[in-house]
Write a structure and sequence with these properties.
Helix 5 packs parallel to helix 8 and helix 9 packs antiparallel against helix 10. The strands form four sheets. Strands 8-9-7-10-11-12 form a six-stranded mixed beta sheet, sandwiched between helices. The termini are far apart. The relative contact order is 0.07. It contains 18 helices and 15 strands. With 515 residues, the protein is α/β, with parallel strands linked by helices.
Length: 515
């Protein structure tokens, strides 16, 4: 049965009725917005702009810029903090975002030296992600063996911690395990020394497999002597046959939890040292290859945040990470570059140094620091804008002596000339006659520094004079890269070359020597 009132359906008729619907909607929107302008879809497309055009192309960013962007993706937010734990029962202390109070003991030097040391400790704390609330230091002949600052000062420090709401105290020195335990028991907050603070920064910034293994080795070596036990309730109880059949009276605590933890740490340390020896073999192989070809090596070393990575980027275009922070880069970077006359040499960036650099780090990073000891020239970078550049120079040279690099030729590069006081620069130039003043940021003095570096590189020691056939163009190329050419003349019989070369290359040229 069909409906008599239903009209016949026609697709063409239905489509004709929809004509003009879009225009009616546009007019209705105009009436609501009070706009009488004619709308043109083409104009709307032309007026539309995408925000993606303003963003840099990821392919055009250097490796350092990508690493810096990745480091800044996640930021710690102040004020978001969990409730305090019972710090007396924390076995493994690790820095979080904390509100900290700095404590120092001034045993020698001037008041200015003490203030510079506390300012550096504050920068280290901020680099680790902490918020510095207050700082105190005192004059003592030597730190108190029980509490580092003395019993009376501990009570005053406890009041400061309670008033500021701090949850961490950072001491400007390496605390003994007993000092650490006594301070935490009395202050009821976490206590961290300078060594643990630096180790935490290294753990945050290490990227390569070798760097992470070196940092973990240093952390475990530091932690092994500072384990906190949970008491005998976690001991392995022995008795009866397990105690050798002594029976009643022979039962007692067996191997405690702290002993098992220490044994596990020793096992992990042994494994890390084996892995680092294997990685050191790879590094030694590369170094021996450069020695075989007698490629000169230049090492950039100096105090942390002195501008070593910026100088490497300026000299070689390496594009490594640059950040105004302490220990921003830990992994060494080696780049191949050439002198003005075509000689090839390498330039390496190394980890930065700091006052009282933890001994564990020097031992763990010894394979990396050997780059400095095996170099033909060390560029000792100094921050000319620092309040105490002479102290930085002394601290770096102290590490040089510890790793056996004090006999390597040294060129002092005073960086940040654009921000330094001219009087300070003049004083440093008078103190260090063999130096250059540069600004890695603006490029000032870079050309002069390159000229000095090229002049300091070892020169080939064997003079030669040879007539090379034209088919031995490979020897001409090697002379440009590894030797020095004084004169070059093309003749009908070949190329007459005079200059200096190393012993291996001079031996190959002997067959074509001119009589």
């Amino acid at each position: 049965m069909t409906n008599a009132n239903a009209r016949d359906f026609s697709l063409d008729t239905e489509l004709e009725e929809t004509v003009g619907w879009d225009e009616d909607e546009v007019l209705a929107v105009d009436e609501r917005d009070g706009s009488d302008d004619d709308h043109d879809d083409h104009d709307e497309v032309e007026d539309f702009t995408s925000g993606y055009a303003d963003e840099p192309d990821p392919e055009e960013l250097t490796t350092g810029e990508l690493d810096l962007a990745e480091r800044h993706e996640l930021r710690r937010v102040a004020g978001l903090r969990t409730d305090l734990e019972d710090i007396t029962e924390v076995e493994y202390r690790q820095l979080r975002l904390e509100r900290v109070v700095l404590v120092g003991v001034w045993t020698e030097g001037s008041v200015e030296d003490a203030e510079n040391s506390m300012a550096e400790l504050a920068l280290l704390a901020e680099t680790a992600g902490s918020e510095v609330l207050d700082a105190i230091y005192q004059r003592r002949q030597k730190p108190d063996p029980a509490t580092y600052i003395g019993r009376g000062k501990v009570e005053g420090l406890k009041e400061i911690v309670a008033a500021t709401g701090a949850d961490t105290v950072i001491c400007d020195g390496e605390l003994a395990p007993s000092q650490l335990r006594n301070l935490e028991d009395r202050l009821k907050v976490k206590v961290v020394d300078r060594t643990a603070l630096i180790l935490d920064i290294f753990a945050q910034h290490a990227k390569s497999k070798e760097g992470q293994a070196q940092v973990e080795l240093a952390q475990l070596t530091y932690l092994k002597q500072r384990l906190r036990g949970w008491g005998g309730n976690l001991s392995r109880q022995v008795g009866g046959r397990a105690a050798g059949g002594v029976g009643i009276g022979g039962r007692g605590p067996g191997e405690t939890k702290i002993e098992t933890d220490r044994r596990r740490i020793n096992t992990r340390i042994a494994k890390l040292r084996r892995e680092l020896r294997e990685m050191k073999g790879t590094r030694d192989t590369k170094r021996q290859e450069r020695r075989r070809h007698q490629v000169p090596a230049v090492a950039i070393a100096g105090y942390t945040n002195a501008g070593k990575s910026s100088l490497l980027n300026r000299l070689t275009g390496a594009g490594v990470l640059v950040e105004d922070a302490l220990f921003a880069t830990l992994d060494p970077t080696t780049r191949r570059t050439t002198t003005a006359d075509g000689r090839v040499y390498t330039m390496s960036d190394t980890v930065g140094f700091v006052r009282h650099l933890p001994h564990q780090l020097v031992e763990a990073f010894r394979s990396t620091l050997e780059e400095v000891a095996d170099a033909d020239l060390v560029l000792h970078v100094v921050d000319g804008s620092h309040p105490d550049p002479e102290g930085q120079i002394a601290a770096v040279r102290e590490v040089f002596a510890e790793i056996g690099a004090d006999q390597v030729p040294e060129l002092v590069v005073i960086n940040k000339a654009d921000a330094a006081d001219p009087m300070v620069l003049a004083r440093l130039q008078q103190r260090e006659p063999h130096c250059v003043v540069v600004s890695a940021k603006t490029g000032e003095g870079i050309a002069e520094a390159l000229g000095v570096v090229e002049g300091e590189l070892p020169r080939p020691g064997v003079e030669f004079s040879a007539l090379l056939p034209y088919e031995r163009g490979d020897l001409i190329n090697r002379l440009h890269q590894q030797g020095e050419i004084d004169s070059l003349e093309h003749t009908g019989d070949g190329t007459i070359v005079r200059g200096r070369a190393n012993e291996d290359l001079a031996g190959e040229l002997a067959a074509y020597a001119l009589v």
